[in-house]
Design brief:
The protein has 18 helices and 13 strands. With 459 residues, the chain is mostly helical. The chain has four domains: 185 residues, no CATH class; 82 residues, no CATH class; 73 residues, no CATH class; 79 residues, no CATH class. Strands 3-4-5 form a three-stranded antiparallel β-sheet. A two-stranded antiparallel ribbon has the order 1-2. Helix 8 packs antiparallel against helix 9.
Length: 459
């Protein structure tokens, strides 16, 4: 086939080669459909798989050249509005991939012909060609344009011989190291830019808040280290609920997926714990003598008719709606500011309460007081030792004092009506429907409380 094609004019050679490629691809696909690869001896299967991968990669290199030729011609097939749109429709490529293919074809043809040749001959893979191209472009981003061609050619010549023996990931790391050598001023400025461009955005979504942002490597390392140290401490203390523990000996795919999910969940809890400790310690400073805090507003009138409250989201004008059971969870262990208003509400129903103006005149704002005083808190910690929920060993420092009979229903703030619960099981009781009843005779002794799951099946 090669000798036959060599004697043909260039355009005929390309057409016949493409025809041969299509026929070969159909034959390979048919063999795959018929189970030919699975039927091959095990010692042969890796070689067959690698041959198909390499051939497909070389075909992709040729496809890149072909797309570049279409782009250079300026002719739009089938009356399409753009070459990218044509690739989306005819080749089934996502818009981002189609545009990336066009940009890559143009860049390889104009600036990286040596990389393209190496890809076409199979000396390097497509991912390696992309890694080199993007990495070198990044190194040159702040280099004066007139100096770029010479430096680019020199870097390609130096790096290509090593590309055959390295993975794209290792080559990408080497290129990052080279940037400081090629353009030290640019590397320094990139570090400054990374610091200046850091941001975190909070967007209320559903019943929570979505967090997105960008951090410099240094900031990320600091935050990730703090989160992992916090979680590691919980592991060492055995202070995690059963559902948050990860078995290190289980290496199945499902266990690995669960491990990643639970790690992300635990990091979120660790961030909340770090912030809670900072707020409660008062080290963040005060405002008019008040320790910083979160603000939840509501009333006993609203709870009485089945309404919740509103949680002030810092930085947002609209507060988040808090359902009644969540509102009660906050009331268990928080500082309460009683506010007496001018409008009595003992005759108002749910609709009246929801629609009533929030800025009704205040007659009196009471002083803050701690629902669970320090002396009682110490007694609870001594009695319970950790989260009192069955099987949970979360440290008392991370627990809330829960009122078994809700505070707004007249439940006293006393040792025979309070129990320590971690955040997870505090929610399980309030929002999850678990009930707590006295199982012992002396509320000062451990295991005084019994926990009963809800009647309905848990989702």
């Amino acid at each position: 086939m090669r000798s036959t094609l060599a004697a043909l004019p260039l355009e005929q050679k390309a057409a016949r080669a493409v025809t041969a490629l299509m026929e070969a691809a159909e034959a390979v696909a048919e063999a795959a459909r018929e189970g030919g690869f699975a039927a091959a001896p095990a010692v042969v299967q890796p070689a067959l798989a690698m041959a198909v991968l390499r051939s497909a990669d070389q075909a992709k290199a040729a496809a890149t050249v072909a797309v570049g030729a279409v782009h250079a011609s300026g002719w739009l097939p089938d009356g399409q509005a753009s070459l990218g749109r044509w690739l989306e429709v005819a080749a089934g490529l996502p818009g981002r991939d189609a545009n990336g293919l066009i940009a890559g074809a143009r860049s390889l043809a104009e600036d990286y012909s040596d990389l393209l040749d190496a890809w076409l001959t199979g000396d390097i893979s497509g991912p390696m060609a992309a890694t080199l191209r993007h990495g070198i472009d990044t190194c040159l981003v702040r280099v004066p344009s007139k100096e770029r061609p010479a430096i680019r050619s020199s870097m390609v010549a130096d790096l290509l011989p090593h590309a055959e023996h390295r993975t794209p990931d290792r080559m990408a790391k080497a290129l990052k190291d080279l940037r400081a050598n090629v353009d030290p001023d640019g590397a320094n400025q990139a570090e400054i830019d990374a610091h200046d461009e850091q941001h975190i955005r909070f967007t209320p979504v559903g019943s929570g808040v979505q967090v997105k942002g960008y951090l410099s490597n240094e900031t990320y390392a600091q935050i990730r280290t703090a989160l992992e140290q916090t979680v590691d401490g919980w592991y060492r203390e055995g202070a995690l609920p059963d559902e948050d523990r990860i078995d290190p000996d289980d290496d199945t795919r499902a266990a690995d997926r669960k491990r990643r999910q639970r790690q992300a969940h635990l990091h979120a809890l660790a961030l909340a714990q770090i912030c809670t400790d900072a707020l409660e310690s008062g080290t963040l400073g005060t405002h008019h003598g008040l320790v910083p805090r979160i603000t939840l507003t509501g009333s006993l009138d609203r709870l009485a008719v089945g309404l919740g409250g509103e949680l002030l989201l810092p930085g947002h004008d609209t507060p988040a709606v808090v359902i009644p059971d969540t509102f009660r969870r906050f009331l268990c262990d928080a500082e309460i500011t009683p506010i007496i208003t001018a409008n009595p509400s003992d005759t108002l129903g749910p609709i009246d309460l929801v629609l009533r103006e929030a800025n009704e005149p205040f007659l009196h704002v009471g002083r803050d007081y701690r629902v669970v005083p320090p002396r009682l808190r110490r007694a609870l910690e001594h009695r319970d030792g950790h989260c009192a929920f069955p099987g949970c060993r979360v440290n008392v420092r991370r627990c809330r004092a829960h009122h078994v009979e809700h505070w707004e229903h007249g439940g006293p703030t006393d040792i025979d009506n309070c129990v320590l619960l971690c955040e997870t099981h505090h929610r399980a009781v309030h929002e999850g429907g678990w009930t707590i009843t006295a199982a012992g005779t002396d509320p000062r002794l451990p295991d005084y409380w019994a926990f009963t799951p809800p009647d309905r099946p848990r989702p």
